[in-house]
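A student in our group prepared the protein record below, which I am reviewing. Here is the record exactly as it was handed to me.
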Amino acid sequence: MKVSQVKCPRCGKPSYSKFKDTVVYCDECRTMHYRTEGGPVVIEYEIAEFQKELPLRKFHLPFWRLFCNVTIFSEQVSGGWAARLVNMASGGGRGGSIFIFVPAIELPPDVFKRMAQDLTTSPPQYRGTERFVGDRMPVAVDEEAARKLADFLILTFEAEKPGVMQNIRYQVDVQHAKLIYLPFYQDGTSWQPGL
Protein backbone atom coordinates (compact mmCIF):
# COMPACT_ATOMS: atom_id res chain seq x y z
CA MET A 1 0.00 0.00 0.00
CA LYS A 2 1.42 3.32 -1.08
CA VAL A 3 0.78 6.34 1.14
CA SER A 4 0.90 9.77 -0.48
CA GLN A 5 0.43 13.26 0.85
CA VAL A 6 -2.86 14.97 -0.03
CA LYS A 7 -2.23 18.13 -2.04
CA CYS A 8 -4.68 20.80 -3.11
CA PRO A 9 -5.68 20.30 -6.77
CA ARG A 10 -5.65 24.09 -7.34
CA CYS A 11 -2.59 25.48 -5.54
CA GLY A 12 -0.61 22.29 -4.85
CA LYS A 13 -0.15 23.02 -1.13
CA PRO A 14 -0.26 20.02 1.24
CA SER A 15 -3.57 19.61 3.10
CA TYR A 16 -3.86 18.39 6.67
CA SER A 17 -6.82 17.39 8.78
CA LYS A 18 -7.15 16.95 12.54
CA PHE A 19 -10.05 14.54 12.06
CA LYS A 20 -11.46 11.98 9.65
CA ASP A 21 -13.32 13.86 6.93
CA THR A 22 -14.61 12.80 3.50
CA VAL A 23 -13.67 16.22 2.10
CA VAL A 24 -10.35 18.04 2.13
CA TYR A 25 -10.18 21.80 2.68
CA CYS A 26 -7.20 23.92 1.63
CA ASP A 27 -6.59 26.75 4.09
CA GLU A 28 -4.34 28.45 1.54
CA CYS A 29 -6.69 28.91 -1.47
CA ARG A 30 -9.96 27.74 0.17
CA THR A 31 -10.55 24.93 -2.33
CA MET A 32 -12.62 21.97 -1.11
CA HIS A 33 -12.36 18.57 -2.75
CA TYR A 34 -12.71 14.85 -2.22
CA ARG A 35 -10.51 12.05 -3.48
CA THR A 36 -11.44 9.34 -5.96
CA GLU A 37 -9.41 6.65 -7.68
CA GLY A 38 -9.31 8.98 -10.68
CA GLY A 39 -7.95 11.87 -8.62
CA PRO A 40 -9.36 14.86 -6.73
CA VAL A 41 -12.84 16.27 -7.45
CA VAL A 42 -13.37 19.93 -6.52
CA ILE A 43 -16.75 20.60 -4.91
CA GLU A 44 -18.84 23.72 -4.51
CA TYR A 45 -19.45 24.96 -0.99
CA GLU A 46 -20.65 28.00 0.94
CA ILE A 47 -19.97 29.15 4.48
CA ALA A 48 -22.78 30.97 6.29
CA GLU A 49 -21.85 33.81 8.60
CA PHE A 50 -22.85 33.79 12.28
CA GLN A 51 -25.68 36.30 12.66
CA LYS A 52 -26.12 36.15 16.42
CA GLU A 53 -23.66 35.92 19.28
CA LEU A 54 -24.07 33.45 22.12
CA PRO A 55 -21.57 32.69 24.91
CA LEU A 56 -21.04 29.16 23.53
CA ARG A 57 -18.48 27.41 21.32
CA LYS A 58 -18.93 28.09 17.57
CA PHE A 59 -19.14 25.38 14.91
CA HIS A 60 -19.90 25.22 11.20
CA LEU A 61 -22.01 22.12 10.48
CA PRO A 62 -22.06 20.75 6.91
CA PHE A 63 -25.30 20.08 5.02
CA TRP A 64 -25.78 18.94 1.44
CA ARG A 65 -28.16 21.31 -0.31
CA LEU A 66 -29.62 19.30 -3.16
CA PHE A 67 -31.50 21.10 -5.91
CA CYS A 68 -34.09 18.51 -6.96
CA ASN A 69 -36.78 18.14 -9.57
CA VAL A 70 -39.73 16.38 -7.97
CA THR A 71 -42.34 14.70 -10.19
CA ILE A 72 -45.63 13.64 -8.61
CA PHE A 73 -47.13 10.73 -10.57
CA SER A 74 -50.13 10.22 -8.32
CA GLU A 75 -51.12 11.30 -4.84
CA GLN A 76 -53.83 11.05 -2.27
CA VAL A 77 -52.46 13.20 0.50
CA SER A 78 -54.23 15.33 3.06
CA GLY A 79 -52.40 17.63 5.44
CA GLY A 80 -48.82 17.23 6.55
CA TRP A 81 -45.54 17.83 4.80
CA ALA A 82 -46.16 15.80 1.62
CA ALA A 83 -49.31 17.80 0.87
CA ARG A 84 -47.28 21.01 1.15
CA LEU A 85 -44.63 19.46 -1.14
CA VAL A 86 -47.29 18.67 -3.74
CA ASN A 87 -48.51 22.29 -3.58
CA MET A 88 -45.01 23.77 -3.34
CA ALA A 89 -43.74 21.98 -6.42
CA SER A 90 -44.61 24.31 -9.30
CA GLY A 91 -47.42 26.08 -7.47
CA GLY A 92 -49.66 23.06 -7.09
CA GLY A 93 -48.77 21.36 -10.38
CA ARG A 94 -47.59 17.81 -10.93
CA GLY A 95 -43.98 18.58 -10.17
CA GLY A 96 -41.40 21.24 -9.69
CA SER A 97 -38.11 22.07 -8.04
CA ILE A 98 -37.16 22.12 -4.39
CA PHE A 99 -34.02 22.30 -2.24
CA ILE A 100 -33.62 19.27 0.02
CA PHE A 101 -31.16 19.63 2.89
CA VAL A 102 -29.32 16.52 4.07
CA PRO A 103 -27.12 16.76 7.18
CA ALA A 104 -23.57 15.71 6.31
CA ILE A 105 -22.49 14.94 9.87
CA GLU A 106 -23.10 12.02 12.17
CA LEU A 107 -26.18 12.72 14.25
CA PRO A 108 -28.70 10.61 16.17
CA PRO A 109 -31.47 9.55 13.71
CA ASP A 110 -34.17 11.72 15.30
CA VAL A 111 -31.94 14.83 15.22
CA PHE A 112 -30.84 14.03 11.64
CA LYS A 113 -34.47 13.82 10.41
CA ARG A 114 -35.59 16.90 12.35
CA MET A 115 -32.73 19.05 10.99
CA ALA A 116 -33.33 17.79 7.43
CA GLN A 117 -37.06 18.50 7.64
CA ASP A 118 -36.69 21.91 9.30
CA LEU A 119 -34.14 23.14 6.73
CA THR A 120 -36.03 21.67 3.76
CA THR A 121 -39.40 23.17 4.74
CA SER A 122 -37.84 26.52 5.80
CA PRO A 123 -34.57 27.00 3.86
CA PRO A 124 -32.18 29.21 5.83
CA GLN A 125 -31.46 32.78 4.80
CA TYR A 126 -27.85 33.71 5.41
CA ARG A 127 -24.96 35.91 4.41
CA GLY A 128 -21.92 34.12 3.09
CA THR A 129 -18.41 34.52 4.43
CA GLU A 130 -15.02 33.46 3.10
CA ARG A 131 -13.61 31.84 6.24
CA PHE A 132 -14.73 29.44 8.91
CA VAL A 133 -15.29 30.94 12.35
CA GLY A 134 -14.90 28.37 15.11
CA ASP A 135 -14.59 24.68 14.27
CA ARG A 136 -15.51 23.11 10.95
CA MET A 137 -17.24 19.79 11.59
CA PRO A 138 -16.13 16.87 9.41
CA VAL A 139 -18.28 15.57 6.56
CA ALA A 140 -19.40 12.01 7.30
CA VAL A 141 -22.13 11.73 4.62
CA ASP A 142 -20.65 12.03 1.14
CA GLU A 143 -22.48 13.46 -1.88
CA GLU A 144 -23.47 10.06 -3.28
CA ALA A 145 -25.04 9.00 0.03
CA ALA A 146 -26.83 12.38 0.33
CA ARG A 147 -28.36 11.93 -3.13
CA LYS A 148 -29.72 8.54 -2.08
CA LEU A 149 -31.04 9.94 1.20
CA ALA A 150 -33.02 12.75 -0.50
CA ASP A 151 -35.74 10.37 -1.73
CA PHE A 152 -35.82 8.52 1.59
CA LEU A 153 -36.16 11.73 3.59
CA ILE A 154 -39.23 12.94 1.70
CA LEU A 155 -41.03 9.72 2.51
CA THR A 156 -39.95 9.61 6.16
CA PHE A 157 -41.07 13.21 6.75
CA GLU A 158 -44.64 11.98 6.23
CA ALA A 159 -44.55 8.30 7.16
CA GLU A 160 -44.35 8.94 10.88
CA LYS A 161 -47.50 11.10 10.92
CA PRO A 162 -50.49 8.75 11.32
CA GLY A 163 -53.59 9.29 9.19
CA VAL A 164 -52.00 11.93 6.96
CA MET A 165 -50.61 10.14 3.91
CA GLN A 166 -52.81 7.74 2.01
CA ASN A 167 -50.80 7.25 -1.19
CA ILE A 168 -48.09 9.05 -3.11
CA ARG A 169 -45.98 8.04 -6.10
CA TYR A 170 -43.20 10.43 -6.93
CA GLN A 171 -39.67 10.68 -8.27
CA VAL A 172 -36.81 12.83 -7.05
CA ASP A 173 -34.03 13.75 -9.49
CA VAL A 174 -31.08 15.57 -7.95
CA GLN A 175 -29.87 18.20 -10.43
CA HIS A 176 -27.14 19.89 -8.38
CA ALA A 177 -25.42 19.45 -5.02
CA LYS A 178 -23.59 22.01 -2.92
CA LEU A 179 -22.09 21.67 0.54
CA ILE A 180 -23.41 24.39 2.86
CA TYR A 181 -21.73 25.05 6.22
CA LEU A 182 -24.28 26.54 8.60
CA PRO A 183 -23.36 28.24 11.90
CA PHE A 184 -24.29 26.52 15.15
CA TYR A 185 -23.40 26.75 18.82
CA GLN A 186 -22.93 23.64 20.91
CA ASP A 187 -24.96 23.77 24.09
CA GLY A 188 -24.09 20.62 26.02
CA THR A 189 -25.33 17.81 23.78
CA SER A 190 -27.62 19.96 21.60
CA TRP A 191 -27.03 22.39 18.73
CA GLN A 192 -28.31 25.99 18.75
CA PRO A 193 -28.56 27.76 15.35
CA GLY A 194 -26.25 30.73 14.84
CA LEU A 195 -28.54 32.35 12.25
